[in-house]
Amino acid sequence: MAYEFSRSSVAGIALSLSVLASAAQASDLPSRKGAPVAPLPPAITWIDAAISVKALTDYNFRGISQSDRKPAGQASVELQFYNNLFYVGVFGSTVDLATSPAAEVDFFAGIRPKFGPVTFDFGVIQYYYPSEKQYIDATGGFWTPKNSEFTEVVGKVSYNYEDKLTVGANVFHAWDWLGIGAEATYASVTAKYNLPFLEGLAVSGEFGRYWIGTPNVSIYFPAPVNLPDYSYWNVGLSYTYKNITADVRYHDTDLSKTECFALTADPRGITSGSFRSRWCSPSVVASLSFDITASSIGIFAPK
């Protein structure tokens, strides 16, 4: 059976083919929308401030109580520059030590270069104890230096795995530890794991070793004294909600009470005649802290 086409049918087919050809040619032309917009470089926070306030049931520093096993209050302010690459700050804490200082005030500064999940921290800390007094017993014997301030240089490195696990290693070195002329080096490893079943809940710990040299006889002891090296560890559970963190932590050392006294000159060990101290014994410390940055409330925020 033959098919016959009318002139109108032929004209319609020709028009359809013309439209398709025009569409095909148009697809080869550059888009009228223009080239894709280049991504903007990440914003830089040229300056920021990190502020922290903390209350503790005991100020435990590397396994030794700095507050005579009593509560302490702390605060710090850290200025950070160029996305926290450079920093400088001050830390303050209430203390109850043998030299009876008004407080502990630490000044610190450093640099934190970051390469992907790896962060380094190289800095210096100056420990200052205002208004302290040399401890002298009833017989006229002195048990502490007149000035126990000292300086440490710091080196740290940490690795963050997918914001779940962070492990680190740290070294601190002082060439005039507590003003007694002894070199001292503290090295530790740390780990923190964010628990998966509750956001903000984490378990963390630290294990460290303190190597302490021989004091300068002329400024402290009447005869050479070998101060004990010791190991220190802590493990704890923390929960962070917004800007508030609650932490409960167990601290311990391998120091005996006699060795602890040799490092601390705990006045209670002198007045009792026992020459022993409990400042290095096992302890559980609870703390509550509030942390905030200026950029988080719109101050120094990147533009």
Can you describe this structure?
- This protein has helices at residues 7-27, 257-264, 267-271, and strands spanning 47-56, 60-61, 64-65, 72-81, 86-93, 104-111, 114-115, 118-128, 150-161, 165-177, 182-194, 201-212, 230-241, 244-253, 283-293.
- The protein contains three helices and 15 strands.
- It is mainly β.
- The longest helix has 21 residues, at 7-27.
- It has a single domain, classed as Beta Barrel (Porin), CATH 2.40.160.160.
- Mean pLDDT is 87; it is low at 1-32.
- Strands 1-4-5-6-8-9-10-11-12-13-14-15 form a twelve-stranded antiparallel beta barrel.
- CATH topology tier name: Porin
Give the overall average pLDDT. Answer: 87
Instruction: Provide the structure class.
Output: mainly beta
Q: Describe the global form.
A: globular
Biggest sheet: strands, sense, closure? 12 strands, antiparallel, barrel
Helix and strand sequence: HEEEEEEEEEEEEEEHHE
Which strand order does the major sheet show? Answer: 1-4-5-6-8-9-10-11-12-13-14-15
Q: Per DSSP, what share of the residues sits in E-state strands of 2 or more residues? A: 35-45%
What's the total helix number?
A: 3
**What's the architecture, going by CATH?**
Beta Barrel
Query: How many structural domains does the protein architecture include?
Result: 1
The amount of helix comes to 10-25%
How far apart, in Å, are the first and last alpha carbons? 78 Å
Structure summary, number of beta strands: 15
Low-confidence stretches: 1-32
In CATH, what is the class?
A: Mainly Beta
- Report the C-alpha radius of gyration, rounded: 32 Å
CATH-defined superfamily: Inverse autotransporter, beta-domain
